[in-house]
């Protein structure tokens, strides 16, 4: 690749850093207790953003062609607009959802141990106290389709008797076990095409 002589060392460096991070994560998983504490972690965010970012990174170089609008034929322009619609249509909703969820749960910590009948929510280091009897209503909102880039984004809203509303997003963890744990409360399962907060 004579055009990009710097690209190969960058890719090798990125691969080496990724391998080291995954290796350390694998090794430290042997010494940590099974996850009961959930926060927005790098690996969870990478899991949710992998396909949208891959789509953007593959498609954005083609969208640079918009800079040459005056030299494009009508056929090329139609193809370029169609490609832009597909790339942005698949990626942007997931990126917007991720940004919303990140802003909402950046400082949230969920402690969840169903075998110990434990569900606690912390904002920063402050425990938000509630018990099951305090839950007036629980909304569990998931995506209608399971095949879209934003299908893994869902959230739980816990409506407390005090009027306070706690929002737990899929940025913390897979919320299906938490919803199952709360099935005996007034749980409402809703499905939407986009799970905006």
From TrEMBL:
Highest taxon, organism lineage: Bacteria
TM stretches of this protein: 6-27, 48-71, 77-97
Keyword Transmembrane part of the UniProt annotation: yes
Residue ranges occupied by any PH domain in the UniProt entry: 37-180
Keywords for the protein's UniProt record, in alphabetical order: Membrane, Transmembrane, Transmembrane helix
Annotated protein name in UniProt: PH domain-containing protein
The organism of origin for this protein: Hymenobacter lucidus
């Amino acid at each position: 690749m004579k055009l990009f002589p710097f690209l190969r060392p960058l890719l090798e460096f990125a691969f080496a850093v990724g391998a080291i991070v995954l290796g350390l994560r694998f090794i430290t998983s042997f010494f940590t207790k099974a996850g009961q504490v959930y926060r927005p972690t790098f690996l969870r965010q990478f899991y949710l953003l992998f396909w949208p970012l891959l789509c953007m990174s593959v498609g954005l170089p083609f969208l640079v062609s918009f800079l040459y609008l005056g030299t494009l034929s009508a056929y090329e322009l139609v193809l370029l607009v169609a490609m832009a619609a597909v790339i942005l249509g698949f990626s942007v909703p997931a990126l917007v959802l991720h940004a919303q969820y990140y802003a909402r749960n950046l400082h949230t910590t969920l402690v969840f141990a169903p075998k110990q009948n434990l569900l606690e929510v912390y904002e920063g280091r402050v425990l938000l106290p509630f018990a099951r009897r305090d839950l007036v209503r629980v909304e569990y909102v998931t995506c209608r389709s399971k095949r879209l880039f934003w299908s893994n984004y869902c959230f739980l809203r816990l409506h407390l008797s005090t009027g306070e509303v706690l929002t737990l997003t899929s940025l913390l963890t897979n919320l299906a076990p938490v919803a199952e744990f709360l099935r005996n409360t007034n749980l409402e399962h809703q499905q939407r095409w986009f799970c905006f907060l």
